[in-house]
Amino acid sequence: MKLLHIDSSVLGPHSVSRQVSAAIVDRLRKATPHLDVSYRDLTLTPLAHLSGSHLAAGQGAEPEAALQQDLAAGHAVLEEFLAADIVVLGAPMYNFTIPSQLKAWIDRILVAGKTFKYGAQGVEGLAGNKRVIVAISRGGFYGAGTPAAVGEHLETYLRWVFGFIGVTNPEFISADGIGVGPEHREKAVADALRAAGSLNAA
Protein backbone atom coordinates (compact mmCIF):
# COMPACT_ATOMS: atom_id res chain seq x y z
CA MET A 1 0.00 0.00 0.00
CA LYS A 2 1.31 3.45 -0.95
CA LEU A 3 0.92 6.64 1.06
CA LEU A 4 1.68 10.07 -0.36
CA HIS A 5 2.47 12.73 2.25
CA ILE A 6 2.21 16.34 1.08
CA ASP A 7 3.07 19.48 3.07
CA SER A 8 2.38 23.03 1.91
CA SER A 9 3.10 25.30 4.88
CA VAL A 10 5.86 27.89 4.42
CA LEU A 11 6.66 27.86 8.15
CA GLY A 12 8.92 24.81 8.25
CA PRO A 13 9.39 23.42 11.78
CA HIS A 14 7.07 26.11 13.20
CA SER A 15 4.11 24.82 11.19
CA VAL A 16 1.13 23.28 12.96
CA SER A 17 -0.23 21.60 9.83
CA ARG A 18 3.16 19.93 9.27
CA GLN A 19 3.19 18.68 12.85
CA VAL A 20 -0.29 17.21 12.54
CA SER A 21 0.24 15.69 9.08
CA ALA A 22 3.42 14.01 10.37
CA ALA A 23 1.46 12.57 13.31
CA ILE A 24 -1.16 11.19 10.91
CA VAL A 25 1.52 9.50 8.81
CA ASP A 26 3.20 8.13 11.93
CA ARG A 27 -0.10 6.65 13.10
CA LEU A 28 -0.75 4.98 9.74
CA ARG A 29 2.83 3.78 9.37
CA LYS A 30 2.70 2.03 12.74
CA ALA A 31 -0.71 0.50 12.04
CA THR A 32 -0.08 -0.64 8.48
CA PRO A 33 2.72 -3.15 7.85
CA HIS A 34 4.88 -2.49 4.79
CA LEU A 35 3.33 0.91 4.12
CA ASP A 36 5.31 2.59 1.33
CA VAL A 37 5.53 6.32 2.20
CA SER A 38 6.66 9.03 -0.20
CA TYR A 39 6.94 12.69 0.78
CA ARG A 40 6.66 15.94 -1.15
CA ASP A 41 7.29 19.38 0.32
CA LEU A 42 5.61 21.90 -1.96
CA THR A 43 7.66 24.78 -0.56
CA LEU A 44 11.04 23.13 -1.17
CA THR A 45 10.16 21.94 -4.67
CA PRO A 46 7.43 24.37 -5.77
CA LEU A 47 5.56 23.91 -9.02
CA ALA A 48 5.13 26.86 -11.34
CA HIS A 49 1.68 28.38 -11.51
CA LEU A 50 -0.24 27.66 -14.68
CA SER A 51 0.35 29.96 -17.63
CA GLY A 52 -1.02 30.23 -21.12
CA SER A 53 1.93 28.16 -22.29
CA HIS A 54 0.96 25.35 -19.91
CA LEU A 55 -2.59 25.33 -21.22
CA ALA A 56 -1.44 25.43 -24.82
CA ALA A 57 0.86 22.46 -24.21
CA GLY A 58 -2.05 20.62 -22.63
CA GLN A 59 -3.99 21.13 -25.85
CA GLY A 60 -1.20 19.61 -27.93
CA ALA A 61 0.92 22.63 -28.83
CA GLU A 62 4.69 22.15 -28.94
CA PRO A 63 5.90 23.36 -25.53
CA GLU A 64 8.58 25.99 -25.23
CA ALA A 65 12.01 24.60 -24.32
CA ALA A 66 11.99 26.50 -21.02
CA LEU A 67 8.73 24.80 -20.06
CA GLN A 68 9.89 21.22 -20.60
CA GLN A 69 11.31 20.70 -17.12
CA ASP A 70 8.23 22.08 -15.41
CA LEU A 71 5.90 19.95 -17.55
CA ALA A 72 7.93 16.90 -16.58
CA ALA A 73 7.63 17.88 -12.91
CA GLY A 74 3.87 18.27 -13.29
CA HIS A 75 3.59 14.85 -14.94
CA ALA A 76 5.60 13.30 -12.09
CA VAL A 77 3.29 14.92 -9.51
CA LEU A 78 0.21 13.56 -11.29
CA GLU A 79 1.62 10.03 -11.55
CA GLU A 80 2.66 10.17 -7.88
CA PHE A 81 -0.88 11.08 -6.90
CA LEU A 82 -2.46 8.44 -9.13
CA ALA A 83 -0.21 5.73 -7.65
CA ALA A 84 -1.13 6.54 -4.02
CA ASP A 85 -3.72 4.58 -2.07
CA ILE A 86 -3.69 7.13 0.77
CA VAL A 87 -2.95 10.85 0.56
CA VAL A 88 -2.10 12.81 3.71
CA LEU A 89 -2.13 16.55 3.12
CA GLY A 90 -0.94 19.34 5.40
CA ALA A 91 -2.91 22.48 4.53
CA PRO A 92 -2.76 25.72 6.55
CA MET A 93 -5.18 28.57 5.94
CA TYR A 94 -3.53 31.64 4.43
CA ASN A 95 -5.82 34.64 4.01
CA PHE A 96 -8.93 32.45 4.20
CA THR A 97 -7.84 29.83 1.66
CA ILE A 98 -5.07 27.42 0.67
CA PRO A 99 -1.40 28.35 0.10
CA SER A 100 -0.61 29.20 -3.51
CA GLN A 101 1.92 26.35 -3.56
CA LEU A 102 -0.91 23.92 -2.84
CA LYS A 103 -3.07 25.50 -5.55
CA ALA A 104 -0.26 24.92 -8.05
CA TRP A 105 -0.19 21.23 -7.03
CA ILE A 106 -3.97 20.91 -7.34
CA ASP A 107 -3.78 22.42 -10.83
CA ARG A 108 -1.46 19.54 -11.81
CA ILE A 109 -3.68 16.75 -10.45
CA LEU A 110 -7.06 17.99 -11.73
CA VAL A 111 -6.55 16.68 -15.25
CA ALA A 112 -9.39 15.65 -17.53
CA GLY A 113 -9.05 12.01 -18.54
CA LYS A 114 -6.81 11.27 -15.57
CA THR A 115 -8.63 12.22 -12.36
CA PHE A 116 -12.01 13.19 -13.83
CA LYS A 117 -13.90 13.05 -17.10
CA TYR A 118 -16.91 14.70 -18.66
CA GLY A 119 -19.76 12.54 -19.90
CA ALA A 120 -23.42 12.62 -20.77
CA GLN A 121 -24.31 12.61 -17.06
CA GLY A 122 -21.86 15.37 -16.19
CA VAL A 123 -18.53 15.09 -14.41
CA GLU A 124 -17.30 11.71 -13.21
CA GLY A 125 -14.45 11.51 -10.71
CA LEU A 126 -11.80 8.91 -11.48
CA ALA A 127 -9.83 9.00 -8.21
CA GLY A 128 -12.50 7.72 -5.83
CA ASN A 129 -10.43 4.73 -4.78
CA LYS A 130 -8.18 6.86 -2.58
CA ARG A 131 -8.32 7.73 1.10
CA VAL A 132 -7.56 11.42 1.63
CA ILE A 133 -6.77 12.80 5.10
CA VAL A 134 -6.15 16.53 5.51
CA ALA A 135 -4.48 18.25 8.46
CA ILE A 136 -5.65 21.85 8.50
CA SER A 137 -4.61 24.75 10.73
CA ARG A 138 -6.46 28.04 11.02
CA GLY A 139 -5.60 31.13 13.02
CA GLY A 140 -9.19 31.80 14.02
CA PHE A 141 -12.44 29.90 14.34
CA TYR A 142 -14.24 29.16 11.09
CA GLY A 143 -16.43 26.17 11.88
CA ALA A 144 -20.08 25.90 10.96
CA GLY A 145 -22.18 28.38 12.90
CA THR A 146 -19.31 30.76 13.68
CA PRO A 147 -19.46 34.39 12.51
CA ALA A 148 -16.42 33.79 10.26
CA ALA A 149 -17.74 30.60 8.64
CA VAL A 150 -18.65 32.49 5.46
CA GLY A 151 -14.95 33.32 4.99
CA GLU A 152 -13.78 29.72 5.20
CA HIS A 153 -12.33 28.73 1.82
CA LEU A 154 -9.82 26.10 2.95
CA GLU A 155 -11.74 23.04 4.08
CA THR A 156 -14.75 23.87 1.92
CA TYR A 157 -12.54 24.25 -1.15
CA LEU A 158 -10.62 21.02 -0.52
CA ARG A 159 -13.85 19.08 0.07
CA TRP A 160 -15.11 20.29 -3.31
CA VAL A 161 -11.82 19.60 -5.11
CA PHE A 162 -11.49 16.04 -3.87
CA GLY A 163 -15.20 15.38 -4.31
CA PHE A 164 -14.90 16.56 -7.91
CA ILE A 165 -12.34 13.82 -8.63
CA GLY A 166 -14.35 11.16 -6.82
CA VAL A 167 -13.11 11.28 -3.21
CA THR A 168 -16.50 11.84 -1.61
CA ASN A 169 -15.47 11.41 2.02
CA PRO A 170 -12.16 13.16 2.70
CA GLU A 171 -11.20 13.21 6.37
CA PHE A 172 -10.17 16.42 8.15
CA ILE A 173 -8.28 16.96 11.39
CA SER A 174 -8.36 20.63 12.38
CA ALA A 175 -6.30 22.83 14.65
CA ASP A 176 -8.36 25.98 15.03
CA GLY A 177 -7.65 29.24 16.83
CA ILE A 178 -3.87 28.88 16.79
CA GLY A 179 -3.48 32.62 16.26
CA VAL A 180 -5.76 33.62 19.13
CA GLY A 181 -3.17 33.15 21.84
CA PRO A 182 -0.67 30.68 23.33
CA GLU A 183 -3.27 28.78 25.35
CA HIS A 184 -5.60 28.39 22.38
CA ARG A 185 -2.69 27.27 20.21
CA GLU A 186 -1.49 24.69 22.73
CA LYS A 187 -4.97 23.22 23.15
CA ALA A 188 -5.68 23.18 19.41
CA VAL A 189 -2.42 21.39 18.64
CA ALA A 190 -2.90 18.88 21.48
CA ASP A 191 -6.45 18.10 20.33
CA ALA A 192 -5.37 17.67 16.71
CA LEU A 193 -2.46 15.42 17.65
CA ARG A 194 -4.77 13.35 19.81
CA ALA A 195 -7.17 12.96 16.89
CA ALA A 196 -4.28 11.95 14.64
CA GLY A 197 -3.12 9.36 17.15
CA SER A 198 -6.56 7.75 17.36
CA LEU A 199 -7.22 7.83 13.63
CA ASN A 200 -8.85 4.74 12.18
CA ALA A 201 -6.06 2.92 10.36
CA ALA A 202 -8.35 0.88 8.10
Automatic annotation (TrEMBL):
Lineage: Bacteria, Pseudomonadati, Pseudomonadota, Alphaproteobacteria, Hyphomicrobiales
Molecular function per GO: electron transfer activity; FMN binding; oxidoreductase activity, acting on NAD(P)H as acceptor; oxidoreductase activity, acting on NAD(P)H, quinone or similar compound as acceptor
EC numbers: 1.6.5.-, 1.7.1.17
Similarity remark: Belongs to the azoreductase type 1 family.
Protein's name according to its UniProt entry: FMN dependent NADH:quinone oxidoreductase
Catalytic activity, as annotated: N,N-dimethyl-1,4-phenylenediamine + anthranilate + 2 NAD(+) = 2-(4-dimethylaminophenyl)diazenylbenzoate + 2 NADH + 2 H(+); 2 a quinone + NADH + H(+) = 2 a 1,4-benzosemiquinone + NAD(+)
Signal peptide segment: none
Binding residues annotated for FMN, in chain numbering: S9, S15, V16, S17, M93, Y94, N95, F96, S137, R138, G139, G140
InterPro entries assigned: Flavodoxin_fold, Flavoprotein-like_sf, FMN-dep_NADH:Q_OxRdtase_AzoR1, NADH:quinone_OxRdtase_FMN_depd
HAMAP family, alphabetized: Azoreductase_type1
One of the Pfam families matching this protein, by short name: Flavodoxin_2
Role description: Also exhibits azoreductase activity. Catalyzes the reductive cleavage of the azo bond in aromatic azo compounds to the corresponding amines. Quinone reductase that provides resistance to thiol-specific stress caused by electrophilic quinones.
Name of encoding gene: azoR
Cofactor section: FMN
Species this protein is from: Bradyrhizobium lablabi
